[in-house]
Amino acid sequence: MSKGNIKMSYKDTLLGKIKDKSIKVGILGLGYVGLPLAVSFAKKGINVLGFEKAPKKKEKIDKGINYIADVEDADLAKVVNDKSLSATTDFSRISECDAVIVCVPTPLDKFKKPDMTYIESACNDIGKYMKKGVLVSLESTTYPTTTEGFMRPIIEKASGCKHGEEFWLCFSPERVDPGNEEYKTENTPKVIGGLGKDANEIAVALYSLAIKTLYPVSSPAAAEMVKILENTYRLINISMINEIALLCGKMDIDLWEVIEAAKTKPYGFQAFYPGPGIGGHCIPLDPFYLEHIAKNYQFDLTMIHTAGQIDNLMPHRMTIKINSALNRQKKAINGAKVLFLGVAYKPDIDDERQSPALKIMDEVAKKNGIVMYHDPYIPEITTDEGREYKSLDLTDSLLKEVDCVVFTTNHSDFDVKNIVAKAGIIVDLRNATDGIVDGDKIYKL
Ligand SMILES: NC(=O)c1ccc[n+]([C@@H]2O[C@H](COP(=O)([O-])OP(=O)(O)OC[C@H]3O[C@@H](n4cnc5c(N)ncnc54)[C@H](O)[C@@H]3O)[C@@H](O)[C@H]2O)c1
Phi, psi at residue 411, to the nearest 5°? Predict the structure, then answer.
């Protein structure tokens, strides 16, 4: 059989399996991105095998126990029960899969450089164990050129297979927005960037099994840039509004009122809201992946750099706000009991990664403040500097006992009126007290 025939035969076999839904999909990394995706495929009757490095997550899946808020408990239990979804820590079972989707972390190291070790390890496992004729799709956020320039050589070397003939690569960025009630994995349009026409065709066929709307682009690099563009847009706009919030604070202008008024313009303005800093796994990190690759082209991304500087300073500036609020009541941070409300990086979710609250808590602790917190979604935390805290019950006596209450995240189930009524000083970094006028005790961002 000629090379051309081999290529056709692998491709046709894979497309045939996708069409009759006999395909087995492997998903590497069952976290905030991987688990919802796995459940989306499994709900459509696709056989999904999740690969996890963390044995505890595998054990939970075995028992049908959900650990990601965006996944419905009943959905997970059902797909585990009907054997559409299972999990393993045995990566040799990649050989069972017809398609492999990579959803592993892409953090930054302490110098804000991309940490590619998770993708590298995933590619080595895939290359070592995959059979011929598979599609490999990367969903982790990364810098443009990763799929072609970083993944392809690792997989080709580890497998001895040739891209475009014996396997195909694609990049399809995950756009999950934790806590979003309207847009979930299945109904969020998905961008697909296959490496070559065949890869695009196969990837579109695969993802259309689980996702409603697909938007193919011409290359993995274009798809990688799409994701980074989306998050860079958010980083820069949020940093911009945070900086303006600081100025408004000095000028005694209520920025929240200003934003509501600006929003009445029917075109050309999109509202971004200030807060104590930028958190989560994506927005504070992803643009620095772009900055990294730009340096290879001797190109300085000055706006990302400036936005990063504003963001880095926010926790310190918020600590100054807490200090001034206490000072106005003739108190000092030193020795003050400071209760933080909400440590998740945004409302109504259970994710505290990169949360600015943790950084502010560290700053207050270093100034000898007595740090406490309450978060209904997060029972315990370890801050960036290694301090450990447990969430306290939000009782009236606790509110009365503390010197200062800080709204770091405005979870919707906070009884804000009661908190304002019972607490002494309130530093509101999220406009949680919107509409409550109590000039003597509420200090806003
Ligand atoms: N969380 C979000 O809102 C979000 C949104 C869009 C994109 N992303 C991107 O998606 C990727 C994953 O993010 P996440 O939030 O799901 O991370 P996560 O930490 O919740 O999940 C990643 C999982 O991968 C596992 N893992 C690590 N190395 C592995 C390996 N070699 N093989 C198999 N499993 C491995 C970890 O144990 C973990 O369970 C990141 O690149 C992130 O930037 C995240």
Answer: -60, 140
